[in-house]
């Protein structure tokens, strides 16, 4: 009997435990503070308790997130208890207000945003109608019998009941007003949520009340435009009593939450035709009562109609105010200031000049308006809704005209805000719930950089560069949404020197990263990229960038030469080419797999790259992503093996394309795309000796290892939404050498002056505001100059195929017009001796800039 009873009790306990666990999984409450926002599908990770602190006479807010787990839930009741202290004083329910947060769609994120575009909670729907005192219930339509008109009740936006779908959440907003006479101490209570089918949960609420009382009135400075659109939203006239009532409710609610409300225009003085004020005693009396009752601290003087400048800055008179209007404007501001001074309000006064000046001409208008206001009344403060830094360095400085700055929330810049405050200006908040950041605004965040470097990819190996069977939809998307560079060159025709050049902006001959004896570093090499060289990563670290190298390094495999010793915070990849033995996989400086499983490399690289982007979404970053493939031997994952029409080579390239698509999609998902420059190219041309396992240079002559265009002219793409015009085709000369100065200049890093740089900032070329500064490409094979190109002309001193061939000197040199003859078939040297002479002198001048350094590639391990 005892045994049976024990089994029964055990079953009961396990059943009860399982029921409780199931209850918890069906719905859970977590807390958020008032400054946080959560997406509808975002996992709630807040604590299981509410902890807040407030002074007396303060409204403190918090959020409670209702999450559904195993099934959809229908919430029918939300209740918060009184908050009671140990000494029994009570903050009653009449001081606590509940709201359901309505989700709205944020279509576009901003550089500083923590979350991508999507549905986010913003408007608050009160549980109780503040006018009627009744619950705000759902909209419904009923009729007593068929054929009779419907009767409507309730509201489209309501509080209860509400449904939360599985895997989603619904935040609730709670305002707690601490009365002035509340004793200091700790107050505790609970908030409880009930859903249908007896699903319940509750969390504790702890409020610490400090022993001091806040004065009445706003707690910060802000500008709010007004409620003119209320009439349109409610389909009423602005002159109606109904409009006045709604406007007053908005003002009272703002004041109750310590936000300075705008002044209703119906209470302000009117204006005579000559600019003088007309004071209506009844209005004035109401205005005094309004300002006293709502504790208004700032008084916006309305702008008179005769001082408004044309909206179109294309008009010749866009910054002109006629003499008669100037006279009336000056009188208006002086009369208004005297009116305010008589009532003791003059120190609260300001003039709102212009909304978001976004052109040079708008800046000029601000200067005109500010000068006029200060001429009328030097003490009057002028406000502009603009960030605290110039959008464009070439625009005029509007600081002399501005006393109060209202930067949009997405362009807050601490450094320049401090500068404005230091010299006497004020910086206010701009009270608006939702704003879209204009793409032409300068971002206060430095841009991010992603450089994706393929290995041995041919000029014609992408769909957007004309391959008939290789499918590269994501790289094609980069071209469609950004720019395709059709005359882009790598600085070398093999792996090691080309990578050194990209990261340093210097020809490999200057750093010792080339050799006529050993063309690349091998697994028995003892050398590597010298520490005297400055990489993009090293330079960007000085500006606080997070940096990572993911993929093939090939600039020295010994620990002292690894990426972690050259400015990269994180490294994941193989140290040299995948045909060298042994082939280890490294994470930072530790071998984690040997030999590496090469079929998984592209996938694992991509996962690590995405993790790096996610972990560093809130700070500037540089991701250098040099893929291992399509260098041979070729390996594709099971998903892509056999999927291409181009055989194994095509499988590998299409998997690279998939990887690049994941990177672009992640940048968009994280809201980083508009602040990230993505560059794609290859280290050198296709490895033609690998036959079907190598790529194609298309109509270009030669391939990897040679100084024919097929060996060094690469497919190149640049992607930066909002900065690079979509569908751009750039035919100017550019090079991997240009990545270094471009990234540094965009990041605000000074270029080193103690060394020769061989690259140029190509930002104007990419955003189509200017041309390339580059007119010359030098073609090195090892430590020797084999060819040079200036403009359309390319001269070969020596030619040699990539492998298994001897050099062929040419005297006179060969000459090709590359734009007429991209395949370098027709030597026209005899027709252009002056071009041969000019290019010969160019090479001689270049050689004088080369200082001999020790070759790192010739150093072998003992």
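^ structure tokens above, recovered residues below v
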């Amino acid at each position: 009997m005892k045994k049976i009873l024990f089994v029964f009790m055990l079953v009961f306990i396990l059943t009860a435990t399982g029921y409780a666990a199931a209850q918890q999984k069906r719905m859970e409450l977590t807390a958020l503070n008032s400054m946080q926002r959560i997406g509808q599908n975002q996992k709630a990770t807040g604590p299981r308790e509410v902890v807040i602190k407030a002074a007396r006479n303060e409204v403190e807010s918090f959020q409670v997130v209702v999450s559904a787990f195993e099934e959809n839930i229908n919430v029918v009741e939300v209740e918060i208890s009184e908050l009671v202290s140990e000494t029994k004083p009570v903050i009653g329910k009449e001081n606590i207000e509940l709201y359901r947060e309505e989700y709205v769609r944020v279509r576009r994120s901003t550089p500083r945003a923590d979350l991508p575009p999507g549905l986010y909670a913003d408007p608050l729907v009160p549980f109780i109608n503040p006018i009627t005192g009744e619950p705000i219930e759902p909209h419904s339509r009923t009729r007593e019998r068929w054929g009779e008109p419907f009767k409507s009740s309730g509201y489209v936006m309501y509080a209860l009941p509400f449904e939360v779908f599985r895997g989603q959440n619904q935040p609730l907003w709670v305002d707690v007003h601490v009365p002035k006479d509340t004793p200091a101490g700790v107050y505790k209570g609970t908030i409880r949520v009930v859903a249908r089918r007896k699903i319940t949960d509750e969390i504790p609420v702890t409020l610490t009340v400090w022993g001091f009382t806040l004065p009445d009135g706003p707690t910060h400075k802000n500008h709010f435009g007004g409620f003119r659109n209320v009439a349109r939203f409610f389909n009423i006239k602005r002159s109606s009593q109904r409009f006045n009532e709604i406007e007053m409710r908005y003002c009272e609610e703002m004041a109750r939450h310590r936000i300075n409300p705008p002044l209703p225009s119906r209470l302000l003085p009117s204006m005579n035709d000559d600019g003088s004020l007309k004071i209506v005693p009844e209005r004035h009396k109401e205005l005094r009562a309004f300002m006293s009752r709502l504790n208004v601290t700032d008084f916006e003087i309305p702008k008179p109609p005769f001082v408004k400048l044309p909206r179109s800055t294309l008009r010749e008179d866009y910054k002109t105010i006629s003499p008669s209007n100037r006279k009336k404007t000056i009188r208006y501001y002086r009369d208004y200031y005297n009116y305010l001074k008589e009532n003791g309000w003059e120190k609260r006064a300001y003039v709102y000049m212009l909304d978001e000046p976004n052109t040079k001409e708008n800046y000029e208008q601000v200067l005109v308006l500010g000068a006029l206001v200060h001429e009328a009344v030097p003490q009057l403060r002028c406000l502009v809704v603009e960030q605290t830094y110039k959008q464009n360095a070439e625009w005029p400085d509007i600081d002399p005209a501005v006393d109060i700055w209202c930067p949009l929330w997405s362009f807050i810049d601490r450094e320049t805000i401090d500068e404005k405050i230091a010299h006497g200006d004020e910086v206010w908040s701009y009270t608006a719930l939702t704003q879209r950041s204009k793409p032409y605004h300068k971002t206060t965040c430095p841009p991010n950089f992603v450089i994706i470097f393929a290995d041995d990819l041919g000029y014609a190996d992408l769909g957007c560069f004309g391959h008939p069977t290789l499918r590269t939809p994501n790289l094609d998307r980069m071209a469609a949404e950004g720019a395709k560079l059709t005359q882009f060159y790598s600085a070398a025709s093999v792996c090691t020197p080309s990578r050194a050049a990209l990261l340093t902006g210097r020809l490999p001959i200057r750093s010792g990263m080339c050799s006529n004896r050993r063309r690349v570093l091998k697994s028995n090499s003892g050398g590597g990229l010298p520490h005297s060289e400055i990489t993009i990563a090293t330079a960007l670290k000085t500006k606080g960038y997070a940096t990572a190298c993911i993929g093939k390094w090939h600039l020295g495999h010994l620990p002292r030469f690894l990426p972690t010793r050259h400015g990269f915070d994180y490294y994941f990849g193989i140290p040299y080419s995948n045909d060298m033995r042994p082939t280890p996989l490294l994470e930072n400086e530790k071998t984690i797999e040997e030999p590496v499983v090469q079929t998984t490399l592209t996938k694992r690289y991509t996962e690590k790259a995405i993790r790096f982007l996610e972990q560093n979404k809130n700070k500037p970053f540089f991701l250098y992503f040099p893929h291992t493939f399509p260098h041979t031997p070729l390996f594709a994952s099971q998903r892509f093996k056999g999927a291409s029409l181009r055989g194994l080579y095509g499988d590998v390239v299409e998997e690279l394309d998939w990887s690049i698509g994941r990177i672009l999609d992640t940048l968009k998902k994280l809201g980083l795309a508009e602040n990230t420059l993505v560059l794609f190219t290859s280290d050198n041309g296709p490895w033609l000796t690998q036959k079907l396992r190598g790529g194609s240079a298309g109509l270009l002559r030669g391939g990897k290892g040679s100084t024919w265009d097929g060996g060094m002219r690469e497919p190149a793409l640049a992607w930066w939404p909002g900065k690079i015009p979509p569908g751009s085709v750039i035919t100017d000369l550019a090079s991997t050498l240009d990545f270094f100065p471009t990234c540094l200049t965009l990041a605000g890093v000074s270029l080193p002056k103690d060394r020769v740089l061989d690259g140029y900032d190509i930002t104007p070329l990419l955003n189509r505001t200017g041309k390339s500064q580059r007119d010359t490409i030098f073609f090195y094979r090892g430590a020797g100059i084999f060819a040079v190109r200036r403009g359309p002309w390319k001269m070969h001193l020596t030619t040699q195929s990539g492998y298994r061939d001897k050099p062929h000197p040419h005297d006179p040199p060969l000459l090709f017009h590359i734009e007429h003859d991209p395949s370098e078939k027709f030597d026209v040297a005899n027709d252009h001796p002056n071009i041969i002479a000019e290019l010969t002198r160019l090479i001689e001048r270049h050689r004088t800039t080369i200082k001999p350094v020790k070759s790192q590639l010739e150093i072998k391990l003992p």
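The radius of gyration is 35 Å.
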